[in-house]
Amino acid sequence: MRKSFSALTAALLGAGSAVALSVALPGVASANCAGPKVIDQEIFGTTFNTSETRATGHNDITAENPEALRVWTEGATSTDKAAAYYTGFEVPLAAQTAQSNYAINYLGTPPPASAQQPGYQLVVDFDDNGTADGILIGEPVYGQNWWLNTTAAQFVKDGAPHTGGGGGSDWFGTLEEWSAKFESADIVSFGYSLGSGVKGDFLIDSIKFGCNVFDFQYAKKAQANRAPVAAFAVAPGTEATTTNDFAFDATGSSDPDGDAITRYFWDFGNGGTQDLKVPTTTYTYPADTQPGSYTVTLTVSDGTLSSTKTGTVTINPPVSSGVQDKPLPNTGADVMTLAALAGLGLVGSGAGIVISRRRKAASAHAA
């Protein structure tokens, strides 16, 4: 009869793991498997119990290794342990004795059997009373023998298929042998453990339990579109030259999402505008533009969102020559024209225009 397992005993997995995980993966306790089940970083955090992982042990699914679960420890001390368990189900051990039901598959070349790699772990209720009694640990170096953890219940140690060491601990046997000794045993959790006290770094592609394959993959988080950032520079400076010409450069504009900026809309503050797809342009303020400051506004868009940037340019008054070419009343001429015709010289000063007759240069000759 199926029972509800709400906890893994503190003696087996530590006090921190005495809570059943709320998210169950379909098909774990069934022979009907629908192919690999993708486990991304979010699903891993809610379906695998990592409370047995210690301070310097890590279980990471990140963008750095997007197709694997990285299981690693920083050193070889008692705090170096990385472990994770999937729980919340019940499967008779007698139905899962084939060695082919269990595998930790590595990304790339698998480590040699002699390497201190993560061990496959089965948490077992050996007497079918609803409480986990021990952990069977499978490691390639021991072939098909699964050894029992040292904190298992005494009755499990007493009933072990083999004793005396040589198989990972003093209590070991194949899964068929364990099942024969404990006919009502149920698997209530499976997972892996690296350490403690073992330094290692492994990329696990997937883990197999029965006909279920759990494939570890990093899932890129969807991010809301962000607006581009407008920026521009003006040349030559912000004050007009005598021709009122300005060059505008918006190549400093950017988009935080890496999207292309598709529109550059310029408002030059005098009613003139330009709507462009390129970041650079020139603009000449008309000759009759009133002197003063004009606000230039750039709006950039990525096709969805937009932002603006403003700057100021200054149109200076026209430069005066200092000589007023004023018309003379009732003559149809002006001061400059008459002075030139009369051979007069005009000398400007702060007090106005002084007219003087030019003298012919005297030629030097002998007396």
From TrEMBL:
SMART domains: PKD. Residues 1-20 form the signal peptide. Keywords: Cell wall, Membrane, Peptidoglycan-anchor, Secreted, Signal, Transmembrane, Transmembrane helix. Pfam families: Gram_pos_anchor (PF00746), PKD_4 (PF18911). Residues 229-322 form the PKD domain. GO terms for biological process: carbohydrate metabolic process. This is PKD domain-containing protein. The chain crosses the membrane at residues 335-355. The keyword DNA-binding does not apply. It comes from Geodermatophilus sabuli. It comes from the Bacteria. PROSITE patterns: PKD.
